[in-house]
């Protein structure tokens, strides 16, 4: 088994180092190889996703990814910006199924911007289609308008599109995930306005007939954004397209009050996966040793479960994380009165200690 480790930019290096530390104490048989990605790769090789990094990622069974991006690269041409690295990995590896759980940890209920009773026990799984939609649709670009409200004016355009197989496969992923949970899927669309999402709704409905045991409902994206802050616990599995999923997953993550706690997985048809925290590179706090490594550590757990077939090891990491929270240890982002504030490295060490302690006991 081979893991490609791509720390990236900003806090990426610090948080990935902690996840690697945790993986190393599990005593499992895998090889890890590190490569630069994003702005770090642009500095080293002149490209955010160099051939060597892409090849390593392709050969690996799983990819542990930190984060990419820094304001200092905002002026670069789009193909050279750090974000292109993650988009390129998704595209080249066909990582179409993005799992973004939004779980509200019992000890962190008060950290939410919503009232505790609205979020206590919250456990939503957002399944975002990741390789289609307006993110990748062609054509796109800038040109001189020949029609519209201002013919002759400079304009920009993108293309929203989904093919039947693209919708079918992500719908299957969602229904199968729901079978392992409370058997409810909400498909989010904008069928009242967009042709693409009327088609989305039709195809998801068809696929749903193959899962009579799973309850399917449909919601427009604007209403879904509202329901997420009004009554988030009404959701279980949410399946949606690339752009709506980008937006709703950030919203859902923030409901838990702890985006620094949320892992994610992006899988292809072969179950090869890229695992990354749901948060970004946070250049404002990079290098200070204060970032929360738990989302990345929990991403490593997801990696063990989904791509490396090591569910027990995944359980050990997740229960170690619950233990350190119960001990009252908190990084700055989730710190509150009565808890102990620790830095990135101490948090990683605490998880390692919790894992080794359980090993000795068992
Ligand atoms: C995400 C991010 C990316 C996206 C960016 C960094 C390209 O926001 O993973 O949600 O838009 O998909
Ligand atoms: Mg996003």
From TrEMBL:
<dbReference type="Pfam" id="PF00180">
    <property type="entry name" value="Iso_dh"/>
</dbReference>
<keyword id="KW-0520">NAD</keyword>
<feature type="site" description="Important for catalysis">
    <location>
        <position position="190"/>
    </location>
</feature>
<keyword id="KW-0963">Cytoplasm</keyword>
<dbReference type="GO" id="GO:0005829">
    <property type="term" value="C:cytosol"/>
</dbReference>
<dbReference type="GO" id="GO:0003862">
    <property type="term" value="F:3-isopropylmalate dehydrogenase activity"/>
</dbReference>
<dbReference type="InterPro" id="IPR004429">
    <property type="entry name" value="Isopropylmalate_DH"/>
</dbReference>
<dbReference type="InterPro" id="IPR024084">
    <property type="entry name" value="IsoPropMal-DH-like_dom"/>
</dbReference>
<keyword id="KW-0432">Leucine biosynthesis</keyword>
<keyword id="KW-0460">Magnesium</keyword>
<dbReference type="InterPro" id="IPR019818">
    <property type="entry name" value="IsoCit/isopropylmalate_DH_CS"/>
</dbReference>
<keyword id="KW-0479">Metal-binding</keyword>
<feature type="binding site">
    <location>
        <position position="222"/>
    </location>
    <ligand>
        <name>Mg(2+)</name>
    </ligand>
</feature>
<dbReference type="GO" id="GO:0051287">
    <property type="term" value="F:NAD binding"/>
</dbReference>
<comment type="similarity">
    <text>Belongs to the isocitrate and isopropylmalate dehydrogenases family. LeuB type 1 subfamily.</text>
</comment>
<comment type="subunit">
    <text>Homodimer.</text>
</comment>
<feature type="binding site">
    <location>
        <begin position="280"/>
        <end position="292"/>
    </location>
    <ligand>
        <name>NAD(+)</name>
    </ligand>
</feature>
<feature type="binding site">
    <location>
        <position position="90"/>
    </location>
    <ligand>
        <name>substrate</name>
    </ligand>
</feature>
<keyword id="KW-0100">Branched-chain amino acid biosynthesis</keyword>
<keyword id="KW-0464">Manganese</keyword>
<feature type="site" description="Important for catalysis">
    <location>
        <position position="135"/>
    </location>
</feature>
<keyword id="KW-0028">Amino-acid biosynthesis</keyword>
<feature type="binding site">
    <location>
        <position position="128"/>
    </location>
    <ligand>
        <name>substrate</name>
    </ligand>
</feature>
<feature type="binding site">
    <location>
        <position position="100"/>
    </location>
    <ligand>
        <name>substrate</name>
    </ligand>
</feature>
<feature type="domain" description="Isopropylmalate dehydrogenase-like">
    <location>
        <begin position="2"/>
        <end position="351"/>
    </location>
</feature>
<keyword id="KW-0560">Oxidoreductase</keyword>
<feature type="binding site">
    <location>
        <position position="250"/>
    </location>
    <ligand>
        <name>Mg(2+)</name>
    </ligand>
</feature>
<dbReference type="GO" id="GO:0000287">
    <property type="term" value="F:magnesium ion binding"/>
</dbReference>
<dbReference type="GO" id="GO:0009098">
    <property type="term" value="P:L-leucine biosynthetic process"/>
</dbReference>
<comment type="pathway">
    <text>Amino-acid biosynthesis; L-leucine biosynthesis; L-leucine from 3-methyl-2-oxobutanoate: step 3/4.</text>
</comment>
<comment type="function">
    <text>Catalyzes the oxidation of 3-carboxy-2-hydroxy-4-methylpentanoate (3-isopropylmalate) to 3-carboxy-4-methyl-2-oxopentanoate. The product decarboxylates to 4-methyl-2 oxopentanoate.</text>
</comment>
<feature type="binding site">
    <location>
        <position position="246"/>
    </location>
    <ligand>
        <name>Mg(2+)</name>
    </ligand>
</feature>
<feature type="binding site">
    <location>
        <position position="222"/>
    </location>
    <ligand>
        <name>substrate</name>
    </ligand>
</feature>
<protein>
    <recommendedName>
        <fullName>3-isopropylmalate dehydrogenase</fullName>
        <ecNumber>1.1.1.85</ecNumber>
    </recommendedName>
</protein>
